[in-house]
């Protein structure tokens, strides 16, 4: 297993990550336009995290760096995926609250983006609202934010693989005297 992982290039890791991001976005868009589930503000920020990770993987696949460059892309990808894990985890937590503990619904995301600074919008959205605590879909006993959290955890394997590949590649070089 380690032999296969150590042989995969940064480009191959990146292509796997990019394909998984495309799958996650495809499911999200199908749920929105095919099924009719409107995304809440936290769902939108989860999509931003997926697209951020996809952008890192796309650039890494095009660049196909050697040496420490793979670690840089891996850390950037891990930051994007980590942000997705944090937002999805917050979403799962909000949905687990008893109804009387759920924060009240605030104004819509579109309205907040028009009248508030970006940092205020981020803090309000991440604090959650009643809209984000509603459970609109369950599949195999898990809510959509739980599935998204699982997706981000699985996706985290890719940037970690990129970092390990880069480290293994450095260690495999012969020592110079």
UniProtKB/TrEMBL annotation:
It is a multi-pass membrane protein. Keywords: Cell inner membrane, Cell membrane, Chaperone, Disulfide bond, Electron transport, Membrane, Oxidoreductase, Redox-active center, Transmembrane, Transmembrane helix, Transport. GO terms for cellular component: plasma membrane. Residues 1-13, 66-71, 166-177 are cytoplasmic. GO terms for molecular function: electron transfer activity; protein-disulfide reductase activity. Signal peptide: none annotated. Disulfide bonds join 40-43. GO terms for biological process: protein folding. It is found in: Cell inner membrane; Cell membrane. Pfam families: DsbB. The chain crosses the membrane at residues 12-32, 44-62, 74-93, 147-168. Residues 31-48 are periplasmic. Belongs to the DsbB family. Required for disulfide bond formation in some periplasmic proteins. Acts by oxidizing the DsbA protein. This is Disulfide bond formation protein B. It comes from Modicisalibacter xianhensis. The lineage of its organism: Bacteria, Pseudomonadati, Pseudomonadota, Gammaproteobacteria, Oceanospirillales.
């Amino acid at each position: 297993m380690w032999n296969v992982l150590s042989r995969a290039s940064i480009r191959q890791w990146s292509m796997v990550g990019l394909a998984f991001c495309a799958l996650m976005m495809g499911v999200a868009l199908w749920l929105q336009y095919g099924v009719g589930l409107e995304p809440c503000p936290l769902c939108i920020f989860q999509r931003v995290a997926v697209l951020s990770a996809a952008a890192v993987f796309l650039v890494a696949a095009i660049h196909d760096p050697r040496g420490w460059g793979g670690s840089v892309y891996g850390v950037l990808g891990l930051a994007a995926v980590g942000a997705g894990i944090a937002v999805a985890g917050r979403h799962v937590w909000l949905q687990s609250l008893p109804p009387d503990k759920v924060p009240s619904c605030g104004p819509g995301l579109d309205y907040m983006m028009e009248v508030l600074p970006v940092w205020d919008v981020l803090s309000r959205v991440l604090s959650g609202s009643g809209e984000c605590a509603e459970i609109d879909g369950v599949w195999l006993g898990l809510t959509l934010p739980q599935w998204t959290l699982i997706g981000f955890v699985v996706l985290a394997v890719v940037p970690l693989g990129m970092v390990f590949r880069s480290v293994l590649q450095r260690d495999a070089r012969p020592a110079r005297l």
